[in-house]
Fold this sequence. Notes:
By secondary structure, the protein is an alpha/beta fold. It has helices at 107-110, 115-131, 146-155, 187-201, 227-239, 251-260, 281-290, 298-302, 304-315, 320-345, 366-375, 380-386, 389-394, and strands at 31-39, 48-56, 59-65, 77-89, 91-96, 134-139, 163-166, 205-209, 243-250, 264-271, 293-295, 349-350, 412-416, 429-434, 437-438.
Amino acid sequence: MAPVPQAGTAEARNPNRSEEPHVMAQPQTPFQLVRAKYLIDGKGGAPVENGAVLLEGARVRAAGPARSVAAPEGAPVEVHEFPDGAILPGLIDVHTHLNYPGDGTHTNDVMKEGDDILLMQSIVNAHSYLLRGVTTMRDNGAKNNTTFSLREGIRRGLAQGPRLVLCGNPLTITGGHMWQMGAEADGVNEVTKGVRRLIQMGADYIKVAVTGGTTLGTYPNLPSYNLEEVQGIVWEAHKFQRLVAAHAHATQGILNALDAGIDMIIHCTWREPDGTSRYREDVAARIAEVGAWVNPTLYQMLGGTRERLLQKKESAGLTPSEQARLDDIQRFSPQRLDQIRKMKDAGVKFVTGTDCGWGEMPFDRIHREMDLFVQAGFTPAQAILTATRDAAGSLGLGHLVGTLEPGKEADVAVFRGAPHRDVNDIANVLAVFQAGHRVR
Length: 440
């Protein structure tokens, strides 16, 4: 096997498809001025009190203190005032599943639905998430062509949703995690063809299941693809300037992904073959050294199911199996948060990806994911970066979105409160602008 090429910068592998222009009607006035109590521009500095952002068509013209941000003299301008709000870049969720309802329906049952139903579910989810202030989202696996059809529908103005970054179907071994989506491939030759086929379909990046998952009959505690297969996937994807993200629960799967030159590790739950979770300082150091991003999907593992079971325990009581499940989550929660804290201290880079749609994760809780980062030792300001600047960088879109700077896409979200003090204020959406168009 030839050596895997160096990954290079994320921007160097950014697919042009993600930069296709929006077709939404632009505002009649060329300038829009958004003013609020706070401006958080996503660059990592302190919030600006009494801040503003000036939008010129689909681009940001200026951002900073309100006293210094204004439209050119004599130019018509539409002013939006939010005296109790905070202006942020449009949020970015790097891990979503548009086909899924987020109501606990098992993936095997969701995948029994026809493509038409899954497409309609995806339309609803995309619009709902845009209204929540998420203006860019990466889908992490869908059946057949459903998300490609949605993206084309949004481009044509037939549906409304965030900017979509798509893998289409995740590559997986025969019978592996998410096999029903349509991209089973085995052996170096077949996975190479699989990458090429996905790129032909329109994939912006490649997702690979390097371990099993919750798909019935798969093995989350063991690697699925061997190292040579993962190397073949990464080599071929990077050749065509596509990033690669690896679904990885088992530690050996994480190691295989790192050896292959992966760009992002999803979940990263440190599972041993016996199912226990054992943090490895040496592996965390390698993740930090190579600069791979980690999307830990914290709320998926620690949030939705736990909250439902606690509510049921208070109202109707739990069955023995439900109580055992709750006990497992309660035991694992502090361990998982401690793992994230140690990884952060080791220099690992994190991004917000909720895994929404899958399991008990609806499209309305990105703030809960960010709050779990805070519980793991991040400041609220650092947690915001995981869903703005850093998320954009991890997708190769840092030149386009993620911060409020002149020339970037006019994707803006306004929330009531002070998210830099409490990220749960992100639940209180006041306004969303996508490419300069205010979403109603």
